[in-house]
Automatic annotation (TrEMBL):
This is DNA-binding transcriptional regulator of glucitol operon. GO terms for molecular function: DNA binding. The chain crosses the membrane at residues 12-32, 44-63. It comes from the Bacteria. It comes from Saccharopolyspora shandongensis. Keywords: DNA-binding, Membrane, Transmembrane, Transmembrane helix. Residues 73-122 are annotated as: Disordered.
């Protein structure tokens, strides 16, 4: 389960997250010191309080990514275990067929036109918009 977190990719990610968390800690201390100097301002104090939040978010994201990787590994391991159990029982193998994709247009078809007898207010509004469009085309 945790073996996948020791791949070169994950080791680089671990190093990156540790460096980012430590850097946000140093930046928070630096801004805190700047806020208490003679030329310090409330902006420095704001940053001093904001950098630890960035560090906490970095750690949260790190833990979240590791959990997602662990769940992905478990999900991949479960079907393999189920397949081996079926093979051991001697159950007939069923070939998995790819799911058929639904064919639908990328753009939905236009709505059917509304007649004056269906909705006179909507028909009048549509006529008003058509007249505006016509006058716009003639003006330009």
């Amino acid at each position: 389960m945790f073996r996948s977190l020791l791949t070169p990719r994950w080791l680089l990610l671990h190093a990156l997250f540790v460096v980012a968390a430590v850097a946000t800690g140093f930046l928070a201390v630096w801004q805190w010191d700047r806020a208490h100097e003679a030329g310090g301002s409330f902006q420095n104090l704001g940053y001093a309080l904001q950098w630890p939040l960035f560090g906490v978010f970095t750690i949260f994201l790190w833990v979240r990514l590791m959990r997602m990787e662990a769940h992905r590994d478990q999900d991949e391991a479960e079907p393999e275990a189920a397949e081996t159990a079926l093979r051991e029982e001697g159950a007939p193998q069923v070939e998995a067929q790819p799911a058929a994709r639904r064919k639908r247009p990328l753009v939905p078809p236009p709505a059917p036109p509304v007649g004056t007898e269906d909705d006179p207010e909507l028909a009048a509004y549509n006529q008003y918009l058509a007249d505006l469009n016509k006058s716009d085309r003639h003006a330009s």
